[in-house]
Write a structure and sequence with these properties.
heterotrimer, A: 3-stranded antiparallel beta sheet, 5 strands, 35% helix, B: alpha+beta, Glutaredoxin
């Protein structure tokens, strides 16, 4: 039997078989993409980095109702609120701990004013300790940066909400 | 027993603002009710006070009435704000209430309102510039359905009112333009 | 089996939801349901208020009645069958809910009531998901009704609980329903504020977010807060509270029902006083003063420093003075520590001036529920409404419900919220004489012989027709008499005499005495032994080398200037305190930061000798420590035996074992005769100046009851002195003078002037001089 196997290997049958597969796939459509130069398309509902949105007049949307804080299953959000000078209810602290966050999107769902949203940003990392906690200014800045995309995504998805 | 909370003995406003005539009217109203039910006299007293004060009730005169009746001021204000015949804001000398409830409405009260507004140049709830006539805003049924459309001019009923008649009334009151 | 249960005459048998129950005749269906665990939705009904039946939420279906009936206004009938969950009942409730929501804004996310809102809860059960109403909603304009309650009247559903509370419980009639129909709004008489000292209760009563807690506004949500049991830190009623804390900080206070004490209410002082905890001068780290310079140090260093200071003088040369806001455990250890060091100079009665009656537990012969059983109540030297608002409420209820007749002996007409039977208002000297006259009348009527010096003094007072009338009522066997002694009497230069007369009156009219304790826990200080043979006034005047001041500050003393001077001269002043103002920092050598009663475990004795225990509600700020721990360590450092406690429960057990027996009644005393030519000063501590905490509560200090720098006198006196309203004057008391502004107030009797004590006055010198600008 061993002898037979040895003789068979001399015909290079296995190699040719393998090469056939390779050859077949060589001409087929490619699945892999060259990340990060290339990216896959994302769903409008993609849940990435958080952001706080503003109204068109520049006023922050968040009214410190704390529903996101209450609904967060990972206790990643912490909020302090106070009466602002103009009498409105506003946050003085809005922090999200990205290490705790599980990106479930409940905060976005619970928000009565569409303030906290999960953007499609998924490429982020932290180099120093403590940077994992996003504060209110950072969240608002992210919101300002991505407002157009965020609004577009919500618009596209509005039918199903 | 019906207890009224103790009231401040301060009677300055009552003494300063209420005329002798008003006080007498209030007394006559008080006499009609049991002595521990002074609140009952509030409507009669407010009528007297309103007449004295030129057709409306200022905050001070309401307080004066409360002091005189020895009841909480808020009770007087509650009554004054409840009834449409009391005016808690300055208004004209004559008050014209046009009923717009169902019977009058079906008989053309809206036409009367339009005519009144046009001829006086004011809207309901407003007063003519010379301070003569106030069109009372949204008067409810004045219980004169039999003669609809009916209006109430300074506590006098006018039934089956036509625009022409209205003009005459306004002329009499001196508010026509 | 036809076993017929016998039902007493005053009870009826009814069925609610097929559940059989026997309930008192005349009670309402909703009460029967509540007591038997059947829930009926409601907004306007409240067990402590009258029935309005204007929200219509509690509609129930009653058998054989063609329409649903409001459960709160339907009395029970024999064999009545009520269905709260039948289709007709539920339909009625759903429809009412829909109407209520028509004008209610959908602003729950910004509403402070969100999460604890009765409308929210009930709309979850009975409301529609989507409103069918499409027209404009009603909008109401908010009024500013003071610094304690914020209004958002658009949310109001006009249940009128607040109106009824202010009319029935507080008796101030400040709110009413303005307008009519769908435009009715709850409001004040045009732009007034709500000034009742119990006003904060409308916040709890409001089923929606129309009336909310102003200092708490937008601070936290109900679900984020922890609730901790607490006891009032401001008056000796010992009202039961819940502190609501978030991250260890007390954000607000709400009442905890206790039928025998505060029922469902608390005073504004109890509700907002604790907010003083964040006062600017809160001490967060131990501080020592070396060569006149303050430095923050760590605890071991501060303790060493304090021990050195305490050891430098003998116990006999040390004086210990405490406020009346600390726990029993602290008082107990303090007394144990310093008595072991041979110190016999302890006192807590800082505001008192006459000590002719020796140390004693305040005499209270009844409990609060017993107040209503008295037909004759005599208030002696007390602004009871400000001193113990809950007691004032009880007296008011006795007047309102049981027709009790309340008489008053006071130096100012405080405008109590009950009718006064005999109103004896005279200056500080005269009203005591009036009380003597009353005793004289009683003696004449009962033919009791007056003995002793007090008896002689009473005998010298003239009798008077009016007082004779009152005396007749008091000795009437059908009338129970109650004598209430307050702080004006307690801090009066003739306090001993007043108490002796009251004692005599109570004994001879078969009456009871209610002696108000000052502060929250002076009873505890007394029981735990912060007592000695010397009194606070003498101690302040003494040449003690070393002073220990425990949770007290300058404003707590009757003689503020003298206290300050004495401390300044002393060799060492060791302060245990949560706060230290400028005055304290000037004189102290070391300040050890200790926790407030809300931040430590402990117990308070209330006026009725109930020992109420509590656990810490809030976290101690920064490096502050519980007072009892500091004292424990100090005990060990000073090598005093018996300070090896591991847990506060061990100290509590020792406090529990203390005797709470009152010494025999008031002693007959030597009478001090007062004689003043000209104006007599009446000064008292303002309601929100009673302790260091309430002084620092900004919300309370912004109310109209806060102390001011006014000198009040009536118009006839003002005319005599040619003074006008708001005129600046100088008030001179002994060698102290202060600039005040004239306030013409007819509630001040002729011959008397009134000013708040916090401007630097003392209550035991009645002779004053008023100098106008011109003179």
């Amino acid at each position: 039997m061993k002898m037979f196997k040895y003789l068979k290997s001399l015909t290079l049958k296995e190699l040719l078989k393998g090469m056939t597969v390779t050859g077949k796939y060589f001409f087929k459509r490619k699945f892999t993409i060259r990340y990060p130069e290339e990216k896959t398309p994302k769903s409008d509902r993609f849940r990435g980095l958080h952001a706080l949105r503003r109204y068109e007049n520049g006023e922050e949307r968040c009214i410190a109702c704390k529903l996101c804080e209450a609904v967060c299953p990972a206790l990643a959000i912490s909020i302090d609120s106070e009466q602002r000078e103009d009498g409105t209810r506003r946050t003085t602290k809005y922090e999200i701990d990205l290490f705790k966050c599980i990106y479930c999107g409940f905060c976005e769902e619970s928000c009565p004013v569409d303030s906290i949203v999960l953007t499609d940003i998924h490429e982020f990392h932290f180099e120093t300790e403590g940077r994992n906690v996003l504060d209110k200014q950072q969240l608002l800045a992210i919101g300002d940066l991505r407002e157009k995309e965020v609004a577009e995504c919500r618009q596209n998805d509005s039918e199903y909400r | 027993m019906y207890q009224v909370n103790p009231q401040n003995n301060d009677k300055t406003l009552a003494n300063e603002l209420l005329t002798q005539e008003t006080k007498e009217t209030i007394e006559s109203w008080l006499a009609k009710y049991p002595s521990d039910q002074r609140r009952s006299a509030v409507i009669g007293s407010l009528h007297a006070a309103q007449e004295q004060n030129g057709g409306w009730l200022s905050k001070e005169i309401m307080q004066a009435v409360a002091q005189y009746l020895e009841i909480p001021a808020i009770w007087v204000y509650e009554a004054a704000s409840f009834y449409s015949m009391f005016f808690t804001k300055a208004c004209g000398k004559h008050k014209v209430s046009i009923c717009t409830n169902i019977s009058c409405m079906l008989n053309g009260a809206e036409k009367i309102v339009d005519h009144a507004e046009k001829s006086l140049g004011i809207k309901l709830g407003e007063t003519t510039e010379d301070g003569q006539i106030t069109l009372v805003k949204e008067e409810e049924c004045i219980a004169a359905c039999v003669g609809a459309p009916a209006i109430l001019v300074d506590e006098h009923y006018h039934e089956n009112v036509t625009p022409e008649e209205l003009d005459k009334i306004f002329k009499k009151l001196g508010g026509e333009k | 089996m036809s076993e017929q249960k016998t039902i007493p005459d005053n009870m009826v048998r009814i069925e609610i939801d097929d559940k059989e129950m026997i309930v008192p005749r005349g009670s309402m269906v909703i009460e029967a349901a509540d007591n038997n665990g059947i829930s009926i939705p409601r907004f306007c009904y409240h067990k402590k208020l009258s029935i309005a039946a204007n929200c219509r939420m509690c509609m129930v279906d009653v058998e054989k009645v063609p329409k649903p009936l409001p459960a709160c206004a339907t009395p029970v009938m024999p064999d009545m069958k009520v269905y709260t969950k039948s289709k007709r009942a539920i339909d009625a409730q759903r429809n009412v809910m829909e109407f209520l929501l028509i004008n209610h804004p959908l602003d729950c996310p910004v509403c402070d009531q969100g999460g604890e809102c009765e409308l929210q809860d009930i709309s979850m059960g009975y409301g529609r998901g989507v409103s069918r109403y499409q027209d404009e909603k009603r909008v109401a304009i908010d009024e500013d009704i003071g610094s304690l309650i914020s209004t958002e009247m658009t949310r109001c559903i006009t249940c009128t609980r607040c109106v009824r509370f202010l009319e029935e419980i507080s008796g101030t009639d400040e709110l009413g329903g303005i307008g009519r129909g769908d435009r009715t709004q709850i409001g004040t008489m045009v732009g007034r504020s709500v000034d009742s000292v119990m006003s904060g209760n409308v916040i709890d009563l409001c089923p929606v977010g129309a009336l909310t807690n102003k200092p708490f506004r937008f601070k936290a949500r109900s679900w984020e807060m922890m609730s901790a049991n607490g006891i009032s830190m401001h008056d000796a009623i010992g009202s039961n509270l819940f502190y609501h804390t978030r991250k260890g900080e007390i954000l607000r206070t709400v009442p905890r029902d206790n039928e025998s004490l505060n029922e469902a209410w608390i005073s504004d002082r109890d509700r907002f006083g604790v907010l003083g905890q964040n006062g600017d001068d809160r001490i967060l780290k131990p501080m020592i003063k070396q060569a006149g310079v303050w430095s923050e140090v760590d605890w071991p260093k501060a303790m060493d420093f304090a021990v050195k200071k305490l050891q430098s003088t003998s116990g006999k040369d040390t004086t210990v003075l405490t406020g009346s806001q600390s726990t029993n455990e602290e008082y107990f250890l303090l007394s144990k520590l310093f008595k072991a060091m041979n110190c016999d100079n302890l006192d807590y009665r800082l505001n008192q001036s006459d000590f002719s009656q020796p140390h004693n537990i305040p005499r209270v012969d009844l409990d609060l529920n017993g107040v209503k059983d008295n037909q004759q109540i005599v208030i002696i030297g007390s602004n009871v409404n400000h001193e113990q608002p809950i007691l004032a409420h009880r007296i008011r209820q006795a007047w309102l419900k049981n027709d009790a007749q309340v008489s008053v002996f006071n130096a100012k007409d405080y405008g109590f919220r009950f009718n006064i039977f005999h109103n004896y208002i005279a200056n500080q000297i005269e009203w005591v004489k009036g009380l003597g006259s009353l005793a004289h009348c009683v003696a004449d009527l009962t033919k009791v012989k007056l003995t002793g010096e007090v008896g002689e003094w009473i005998d010298n007072q003239a009798t008077d027709e009016n007082l004779n009338h009152l005396a007749k009522q008091l000795i009437n066997k059908d009338n129970n008499a109650l004598f209430v002694i307050g702080q004006v009497a307690n801090n009066h230069p003739q306090a001993g005499l007043i108490k002796a007369i009251v004692e005599w009156l109570a004994d001879n009219t078969d009456g009871k005495v209610y002696e108000m304790a000052c502060g929250a826990n002076s009873v505890g200080a007394e029981i735990c032994g912060v007592t000695s043979n010397t009194n606070a006034a003498d101690l302040i005047n003494s040449k003690s080398k070393s002073f220990v001041i425990y949770q007290a500050e300058n404003d707590d003393f009757n003689r503020m200037q003298l206290a300050h001077e004495t401390f300044d001269k002393a060799d060492s002043v060791v302060v245990f305190s949560s706060f230290a103002d400028k005055n304290m920092k000037e004189v102290a050598d070391v300040i050890l930061p200790i926790g407030l009663a809300s931040e430590v475990a402990g117990s308070f004795f209330n006026n009725f000798l109930e020992n109420q225990k509590f656990k810490p509600a809030a976290n101690l700020p920064k490096e502050a420590k519980p007072g009892w721990r500091v004292l424990r360590v100090l005990g060990n450092m000073l090598n005093v035996d018996g300070f090896d406690y591991d847990d506060i429960s061990e100290v509590m057990a020792e406090v529990d074992a203390l005797s709470t027996k009152r010494k025999a009644s008031f002693q007959p005393i030597e009478v001090t005769h007062l004689n003043v030519d000209g104006l007599v000063l009446h000064t008292e501590t303002a309601i929100y100046d009673v302790d260091m905490l309430s002084r620092r509560s900004n919300a309370l200090q912004e109310t109209i009851h806060a102390s001011n720098d006014c000198l009040s006198l009536n118009s006839s006196e003002a005319e005599k002195l040619k003074l006008e309203n708001a005129m600046p004057v100088t008030l001179i008391q002994g060698d102290y003078s202060v600039e005040l502004f004239i306030n013409i107030d007819e509630s001040i009797p002729t011959g008397s002037v009134f000013a708040n004590k916090c401007v630097g006055l003392r209550s035991d010198v009645l002779e004053v001089e008023v100098r106008g600008e011109s003179s």
